[in-house]
Design goal:
This protein has five domains: about 5-155, Serine Threonine Protein Phosphatase 5, Tetratricopeptide repeat; about 185-335, Neuraminidase (6 Propeller); about 355-435, no CATH class; about 440-530, Immunoglobulin-like (Sandwich); about 535-648, 60s Ribosomal Protein L30, Chain: A (2-Layer Sandwich), CATH 3.30.1330. Helix content is about 25%, strand content about 30%. It has eleven helices and 35 strands. Strands 2, 3, 4, 5 and 6 form a five-stranded antiparallel beta sheet that branches. Strands 7, 8, 9, 10 and 11 form a five-stranded antiparallel beta sheet that branches.
């Protein structure tokens, strides 16, 4: 890029603007002023900015209308990031001569835009474009900046609700706190703190801290400790909705410092799981997620197998997504579409637990300047919509990033260096306005245990959308204590299957049509039954039309789980039983239940299960498990079960 000092000389020589002046024909007639100006130019060229400033000021004192001296003083202040003084200098220059150097309007407008003076910037960008001949490189940028100015002016006229509250002294300190992560139940907060560290070559070191919530207050944050935190930097984390999986960025690991921290590039992504209250040794996610490039700022979706992150592997900082298959292998990362990624910088990506709303920061979309925060929603075909700016005053002319939205969608967190804070970056929370909130999400929380002895168990959770047959969530309960938390995006009908080798699976149905929220979650401990003679399982996701025995398509999800169980345990023989409520005659109900049990039996046989391993029987209304005096009780009595009748 041509330096503005050189560009000014070219313009004065007649380049672009046909001004018939020579390089020696400066606007000042004062020899002393010109001598001081030339001394300032020399100092500026050698980056001796203090003396350059002194000489330019001297030339202006000797000749207050010395146009070129004001312009050079403006560039000096711009280069040394004294924006207010740079703006003042350019304005003085243009007040002296408004036509000889049109590019001054561009430089002035850029500074005004960068300091939030949007109307002035808009006026000066438009003035710059009004000249006949302007440098093309600035013309294209100006047209883009005008869109930003128009947006910013209107955004300020129509501010969104925003009232940030500091999270308090138990979280924030005089140091920098940023990149917050929150579990779906809002009980665990994990974040990055930048510590002073004399041993580090930068004098600073990033570590993770964690706080738990009690009586609506955050407890004092504690260092998460080894094996996660080391004497190197750990930053930009993402926490699974249940708090049992942590993925983070480590950037000093190319040469390795321990078996689990060797890297492929400058910054790689590492993963650790929780066993009880302890974290396992982190391991690199490996190729193809980690690469010889820079990978950072991960965000793990609530389904437990979709990971968004930022990488510069395509010569730009863009958002990528990778999906983990059933064998735990991550797919080749794909860049999100062009409506999200731009030629600018995209980062601080956050996928909400609804798995449909994505928040991110960018300086490439129309906005207020710097990094703004945007959100986009996925449509029914899986495509991301056009990003929407969160608006003013959430976004300003400064950089905004690292936003987090709670599972219930009401609470947002971000880092800011506001004057009223404790020092440096602090974490703040605010109520996110309605239009920018994600889809409603509730959750199921509890403990998995062995029904026979109460032992806490690690088990696999599959939450499947019954309409699409797609797995919405796949996760595991905590290996050490059996605890789990599964997010349930609402307005859908789900089949939940909890399984573990050596046990019969657990079946549950969640019909969440309508609005549900985390203020009323499902709290339920889940018993798993060892595979043994006589044990029964209620198949809560087998569906029939009223008074009919044709299987509904939604039943296929549960039937496949039963097929998988039988295939993994070839010695197993089962009885399939049908049950009804007491509506209708006992004879009718007995026949209906028999036909429904047979329908399940036939489906299994049609899908490869040997008939010799299956029996089916109808029990009608003879074995109720609930009252028939309520609609809920009747629904519970209308069921399909299977029972282990042989393990030989």
């Amino acid at each position: 890029m041509i330096k503005k000092a050189v560009l000014l000389i070219l313009i004065i020589l007649g380049f672009n603007f046909s001004i018939n002046l020579s390089a020696q024909e400066l606007s000042s007639k004062s020899k002393k002023a010109i001598k001081a100006y030339e001394a300032g130019e020399t100092a500026f060229r050698f980056q001796d900015y203090p003396n350059a400033e002194m000489f330019f000021k001297q030339s202006i004192e000797l000749d207050p209308v010395f146009f070129e001296a004001w312009v050079m003083l403006g560039e000096l202040y711009e280069k040394t990031k004294i924006d207010s003084s740079a703006i003042d200098a350019y304005r003085h220059a243009l007040a002296i001569d408004s036509v000889i150097y049109p590019s001054a309007y561009y430089f002035l407008a850029e500074l005004e835009f960068g300091t939030g003076q949007y109307q002035s910037a808009l006026d000066h960008f438009e003035k710059f474009l009004s000249f006949d001949k302007i440098p093309r490189v600035y013309e294209a940028k100006t047209k883009k900046q005008l869109l930003n100015c128009y947006f910013a002016v209107e955004a300020i006229k129509n501010p969104v609700p925003f009232d940030p509250v500091n999270l308090g002294h138990n979280i924030n300190t005089e140091l920098n706190e940023y990149f917050p992560c929150l579990t779906a139940d809002k009980q665990v907060l994990l974040f990055t703190r930048l510590l002073n560290d004399k041993a580090s070559f930068t004098g600073r070191q990033e570590d993770f801290y964690v706080s738990t919530r009690k009586n609506h207050e955050w407890n004092p944050a504690k260092n998460i400790g080894p094996p996660i935190n080391t004497y190197y930097n750990e930053g930009a984390p993402t926490l699974s909705v249940d708090g049992n999986v942590l993925i983070f960025t480590a950037c000093e690991s190319v040469n390795g410092y321990g078996a689990n921290r060797s890297g492929f590039g400058r910054c790689d992504l590492f993963i650790s799981g929780k066993n009880g209250d302890n974290w396992t040794a982190p391991r690199n996610l490996g190729i193809p997620v980690s690469s010889r490039y820079w990978e950072s700022q991960p965000s793990l979706s609530a389904d437990g197998r979709t990971l968004y992150f930022v990488s510069n592997r395509d010569d730009d900082y863009d958002i990528y997504v990778t999906i983990q298959d059933d064998d735990g292998v991550w797919s080749e990362p794909e860049m999100l579409g062009g409506n999200i990624n731009t030629e600018g910088y995209e980062g601080s990506v956050f996928i909400h637990p609804d798995n449909q709303t994505l928040y991110f920061s960018s300086d490439g979309h129309v906005g207020m300047g710097g990094m703004d925060i945007y959100y986009t929603r996925r449509d029914s075909l899986g495509n991301w919509g056009e990003p929407i700016n969160l608006g003013y005053p959430i976004n300003t002319h400064k950089d905004e990033n690292s936003i987090l939205i709670s599972a219930d969608g009401s609470l947002a967190m971000f880092a800011s260096d506001r004057e009223e804070g404790f020092g440096g970056l602090d974490l703040y929370g605010f109520n996110l306005y309605e239009a920018a909130r994600p889809q409603f999400v509730t959750y199921l929380k509890g403990t998995v245990y062995d029904e026979t002895n109460g032992q806490k168990l690690e088990a696999r959770f599959d939450l499947t959308d019954l309409k699409t047959g797609e797995i919405a969530v796949r996760s595991f309960s905590n290996k050490g204590n059996g605890e789990f938390l599964v997010c349930l995006p609402t307005d859908r009908d789900y089949a939940l299957n909890v399984s573990r080798e050596g046990y019969l699976f657990y079946s549950e149905n969640f019909n969440l049509n309508g609005i549900h929220s985390t203020s009323n979650p499902f709290l339920k401990d889940i018993p798993l039954k060892p595979i043994r003679l006589g044990e029964k399982v209620i198949l809560r996701n087998i569906f029939f039309e009223t008074d009919m025995f044709d299987l509904k398509p939604e039943s296929q999800v549960e039937l496949q789980k039963l097929i998988d169980l039988l295939n993994k345990n070839p010695e197993l023989k089962i009885e399939i039983s049908g049950h009804t409520d007491n509506v209708g005659t006992p004879e009718y109900n007995l026949e209906l239940s028999k036909n429904r049990a047979k329908a399940v039996n036939d489906y299994l046989v049609d899908n490869g299960i040997d008939q010799a391993r299956l029996l089916y029987k109808g029990y009608g209304e003879s074995e109720p498990i609930d009252t028939n005096d309520t609609e809920t009780g009747k629904a519970n009595n209308r069921r399909t079960e299977f029972k282990v009748i042989s393990q030989d």
